[in-house]
Structures are given as C-alpha cells and as structure tokens.
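User: Could you go from structure to sequence for me? I need the amino acid at each position, not a summary. Structure tokens:
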C-alpha cells in the first residue's frame, strides 16, 4: 500500500477541484483498510470514491482513503434470483453493464451514473424509477471507530430520498468495502414508468419505442436510458460537474398550488414511492406533500446556461451546476449560494444540496 503525501485530488473529483490531501492511499482489501487504520489512528479520514457527488472546498488535513476493491462474485442463486457481491471500488456503470450482459435485472435503469459501488451505496442513487435500495441486500464495511468489520442491512442505513446515514450521521465512520444485490434472472418485466410530464425529453417508453419493439430486452431498456441520459446531462469529459446539485424539494400541496400560479408547467409528483425527508414527518401525512422539480424552478429564474466566471449551469439541465474544470471549490460554493438565495427570495424555498460539501 503506497502512501502519498501532499497529494492533489484534482483527478479524484468530477468538479476537478485542485485541493490536496495531507496523506492519500488506495486500499485494495479489507486487510488494507484495517492496516491503514492501525497505522494512522489519529488522522482525520475521508473516504472518497470517484468524487462524483463531492465538492471539495479546501485541502484535507488528514488521510484520504480510496477503496479500489473491485471483485465481483456470485453469493448464491435460486430459480428466480441471483445474489451478486461487488467490491466498493468497482465502477458503478461497469457493474450495471456486467449484470445486464448476464440478464440480471433490477439496476439497468441506473446505467451511466458516474462513481463507484461504495459511492452509490452511500449516496442512495436513483434514476428513471429505480433506486439502489430496490435491490440492495447488505453492505460490508470497516468501522473506523472500532476498527472492526461489520455487516449492515439497508434498514439500518437510514435511506431516504438522496440520503443515508453514510452521508449524514455516519459521515467519516465507515469504509464500505462491498455490497450485495439481489437481481432477477431472465425477467421480461422492466421499470418503464418514468416520464416527464411537461419536459422536452419525453418518457422512457417513447425512447424505447423509437428503436425497439416488444417484447423489450434488458439491453433495449438499458439503451433507452443511455439515450435519455445523453440528451439530458452534461458530459463529465467536457465539464466539471456532480450532476444534479440540489434535491428536488418536497413541499405542502398548498405551497405547490401557489407556486404553480407563478411558474408555468410546474409539475408535481407523489411522495409515496420514495422515503422523503420531511421535518417532523410524524405530524404529517404523506398525502399532504408533493415533490416538485428544482430544475423547473431554476429554469424559470433564468439559471439555465448562466455563467459567473469559471462556474455555470448546464444548457441541458438547470439543476446541473458545471465548471470549466478550473474553478476552485469556493467559487463553486459561492455560485451555488447565489442560486439558493435567488430561489429563497423569489419563492421562499430552501434548495438543499444533494452534493456532499467537504469543508
Ligand atoms: C453527470 C452526473 C450524473 C449523475 N447522475 C446521477 C443520477 O442519475 N442519480 C443519482 O443518484 N446520482 C447521480 N449522480 C451523482 C453521483 O454519480 C452518485 O452520487 C455516485 O454514486 C457517487 O459515487 P462516487 O464514488 O463518485 O462517490 P463520492 O462522491 O466519492 O462520495 C460520495 C459520498 O460517499 C462517501 N463514500 C464514497 N465511497 C465510500 C466508501 N467506499 N465507503 C464509505 N463512504 C464512501 C464519501 O465519503 C462521500 O460522502 C450524477 C453525477 C454526475 C457527475
């Protein structure tokens, strides 16, 4: 295991922010994780995947640990299901394509999401009607505090829309080493319900019908998602970005009705399907709330395509903050604060960052 000193993280975060880690190492096994914790018991630890949902503001005065554990293996299978374990350092998109090639279904709509398997578990990724928690069975990790191996079940991980304990109360507590997924074998049933009610990009089914015929294969479904993502999202090769910067707000229905008088074609979505974070949730009924697209609100305020210096908003999607890869973390954060202030002032909505801001 090589330990680098004063190491630039520019190539380890998709905003390409050039900050340094006092110490940096890559771990390729659970033993490596335990060894590094024993060797540096006092250092502050930041675990980083591919940094595709992380905004680094300043140098990290501790050790950055990057898991590169990439083993993929079958745990067990029966007639209907197969359980596959992947190391946390596997590229998520690679893992999806590996499963699709074998006709294992359940994560095909999550293709092309940047980052690692560990990052996906921590961030609770979702796209096009699929959530990682639909198939996640267990997570293996090393507890930084006790320096012991643990196995965590999804119900312990505090999963809510775009949130998890790994992101919040367990931040800096675990190094996720692998995760097990339960996937369906040779299925003909796919998640095709995603549609944009008023957007310019249409539905998954429309995309699918533009090049395939029923019965659709899992490869067709994955291709439809790939086509949609290419239209909607900025490329990480061209821009610095973490994709959507903000969570879609959940608001009371009354608030939505007020907003829709001011913002044309503002859609709303029920909150039953996903677990959303609402303050004092117990006091309310889910039926009283709706999710609204933050991108439409930002679009209305003219943020799409607007730039200030090295930082801007994608022409493709008003929720995607982009940079020219030269921006500092502080410049990006200042830009994001301007967007938040604008939305608060005009519509009294607090936009919450989906991206982890590491200060
Ligand atoms: C163009 C683009 C499109 C995107 N589209 C989507 C999308 O459709 N849906 C979606 O949900 N997200 C999307 N994202 C966000 C991002 O890709 C995901 O959140 C991804 O899972 C992050 O993985 P990562 O390895 O880069 O995590 P990082 O950014 O490196 O880390 C994220 C968090 O997880 C922690 N972490 C990472 N690995 C580990 C580990 N092994 N152990 C413990 N903690 C760990 C980090 O400490 C950090 O707090 C998009 C991003 C981009 C740039």
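Assistant: Here is the amino acid at each position, in order:
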């Amino acid at each position: 295991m090589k330990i680098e000193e004063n190491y630039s993280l520019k190539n380890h975060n998709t905003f390409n922010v050039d900050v340094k880690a006092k110490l940096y190492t890559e771990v390729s096994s659970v033993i490596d994780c335990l060894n590094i914790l024993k060797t540096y018991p006092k250092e502050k630890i930041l675990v980083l995947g591919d940094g595709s949902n992380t905004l680094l503001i300043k140098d990290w005065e501790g050790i950055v640990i990057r898991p590169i554990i990439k083993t993929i293996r079958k745990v067990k299978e029966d007639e209907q299901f197969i359980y596959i374990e992947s190391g946390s350092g596997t590229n998520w998109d690679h893992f999806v394509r590996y499963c699709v090639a074998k006709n294992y279904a359940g994560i095909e709509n999550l293709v092309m999401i940047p980052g690692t398997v560990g990052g996906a578990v921590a961030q609770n990724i979702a796209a096009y009607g699929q959530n990682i928690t639909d198939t996640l069975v267990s997570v293996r990790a090393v507890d930084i505090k006790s320096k012991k191996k643990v196995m965590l079940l999804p119900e312990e991980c505090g999963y809510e829309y775009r949130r998890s304990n790994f992101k919040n109360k367990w931040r800096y507590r675990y190094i996720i080493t692998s995760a097990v997924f339960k996937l369906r074998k040779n299925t003909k049933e796919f998640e095709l319900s995603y549609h944009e009610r008023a957007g310019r990009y249409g539905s998954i089914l429309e995309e699918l019908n533009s090049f395939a015929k029923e019965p659709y294969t899992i490869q067709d479904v994955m291709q439809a998602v790939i086509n949609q993502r290419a239209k909607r999202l900025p490329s990480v090769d061209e821009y610095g970005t973490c994709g959507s910067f903000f969570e879609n707000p959940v608001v009371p229905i009354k608030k939505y009705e007020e907003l829709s008088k001011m913002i044309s074609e503002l859609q709303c979505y029920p909150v039953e399907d996903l677990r959303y974070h609402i303050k004092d949730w117990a006091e309310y009924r889910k039926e009283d709330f709706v999710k609204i697209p933050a991108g439409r609100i930002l679009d209305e305020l003219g943020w799409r395509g607007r730039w200030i210096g090295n930082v801007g908003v994608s022409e493709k999607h008003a929720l995607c903050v982009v940079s020219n890869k030269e921006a500092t973390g502080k410049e990006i954060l200042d830009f994001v604060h301007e967007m938040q202030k604008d939305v608060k002032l005009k519509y009294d909505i607090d936009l919450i960052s989906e991206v982890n801001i590491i200060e």
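One structural detail worth keeping in mind: The domain at 70-232 is CATH 3.30.465.10 (Uridine Diphospho-n-acetylenolpyruvylglucosamine Reductase; domain 3).
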